[in-house]
Amino acid sequence: MNKVLFFAHLRDEAGVESAEIEAAGKTVAQLKEIVAETYKLGKLDSAMAAINEEFAPNEEVIQEGDVIAFIPPVSGG
Amino acid sequence: MSTRYSRQTLFPPIGKEGQEKISSKHVLIIGAGALGSGNAEVMTRAGVGKLTIIDRDYVEASNLQRQQLYTEQDVADKLPKAAAAEKRLRTINSDVEIVALIGDATPEKLAELAEGVDLILDSTDNFETRMAINDIAQKYKIPWIYGACVASFGMSFTVIPGVTPCLNCLLKTVPIQGLTCDTGGIIGPAVQMAIAHQTAEALKILVEDWEAVRASFVSFDLWRNQYTSMKMGRAKDPGCLSCGEHPEYPYLSAENMTKTTVLCGRDTVQIRPPHSEGVDLSDMAARLKALGYEVKGNPYLLSAEMDENRFVLFQDGRALIHGTKDLAQAKSIYNRLLG
């Protein structure tokens, strides 16, 4: 099982702070698709992903027990 | 005023030697909105040698809640932000050479401004300009500090050419998100927290305390009490076109820039972003309605109107801004709504 954390406006859009998802063996890109579909998140493509608090590219394969965080880049200033 | 910087020089990592370094450095600030005002004030009070700040906008009443350099009088005078910032900064510290420029921070302009600059502080409201800053910083080997905020959250990351990953390594493309200070709102503390992260890094870089520079990407939400630090050790992409082995600085080339065109006789400016991922029109319609816009639409476009503001947004991210022939103003409206 994997814990998925939503940050910033993704948390508002998903309606939850975190979720438990079976993601071991999947890539970050695949998990983004699943999560976008499940939680109806329009703009997950451009979100950055961290696995266990370390930046993870889209190709990175998720391991059992990894904690994945999605952090959307913010543009305001 | 010999005691002017005493509390800063008493801080051991800065000291007298650090203060001398700070006063010999030139900082470039892109944008004079919320982050730009705060970053400029901290740098001016800290006593940088020279500060250059550029902005294309003018002061409005809705800025005063968080843009700390501006006053009601600046709103009444409709002063350009750069001019109002310059006026205030000069009264704060007359030792600092302040150069304020009213205009758009295009890649050409950035290249011209980069000459002799020791540090760039990002204070813009859009990723297109940030990607151009990122390329300029790599090309001229200038450290720069990304900072951004919206609603109750914000983030910052320090880019040091040749050392850290760059913004293009992280994002790969210019994200369009539809959540900006004009659509999602913003509270003052989120601005201040982003400024605190940016200016602390700035001081470390100005005194050349490279060991102290934060290597992680920090993001926070002050309302939900979240604070996260993402390690960036594996983020550097050797094939990155901005900082990799064969850089091409893609965001300095014309094809990656937003095209703005005045549509003849229509008092309208067309804005076409490059390589847009597309816009979620129903999401955008809901946000605009919440702001008081009257919104109509179909699956291909939405049209929004409020007072004298009227624009049409297409699914591919293209927009027609009605009621203006001013390219910079139209681009400013677009970025405020779409980021």
From TrEMBL, chain A:
SUPFAM superfamilies: MoaD/ThiS. One of its GO terms (molecular function) is nucleotide binding. Pathway: Cofactor biosynthesis; molybdopterin biosynthesis. Keywords: Molybdenum cofactor biosynthesis, Nucleotide-binding. It holds the Pfam family ThiS. It comes from the Bacteria. GO terms for cellular component: molybdopterin adenylyltransferase complex. One of its GO terms (biological process) is Mo-molybdopterin cofactor biosynthetic process. PANTHER family: MOLYBDOPTERIN SYNTHASE SULFUR CARRIER SUBUNIT. Belongs to the MoaD family. Heterotetramer of 2 MoaD subunits and 2 MoaE subunits. Forms a stable heterotetrameric complex of 2 MoaD and 2 MoeB during adenylation of MoaD by MoeB. During catalysis MoaD shuttles between the two heterotetrameric complexes. Involved in sulfur transfer in the conversion of molybdopterin precursor Z to molybdopterin. This is Molybdopterin synthase sulfur carrier subunit. The lineage of its organism: Bacteria, Bacillati, Bacillota, Bacilli, Bacillales.
Automatic annotation (TrEMBL), chain B:
It comes from the Bacteria. The chain crosses the membrane at residues 144-163. Keywords: Membrane, Transmembrane, Transmembrane helix. GO terms for cellular component: cytosol. It holds the Pfam family ThiF. InterPro entries: ThiF/MoeB/HesA, ThiF_NAD_FAD-bd, Ubiquitin-activating_enz. Residues 5-241 form the THIF-type NAD/FAD binding fold domain. GO terms for molecular function: nucleotidyltransferase activity; sulfotransferase activity; thiosulfate-cyanide sulfurtransferase activity; ubiquitin-like modifier activating enzyme activity. Belongs to the HesA/MoeB/ThiF family. PANTHER family: ADENYLYLTRANSFERASE AND SULFURTRANSFERASE MOCS3, UBIQUITIN-ACTIVATING ENZYME E1. This is Thiamine biosynthesis protein MoeB.
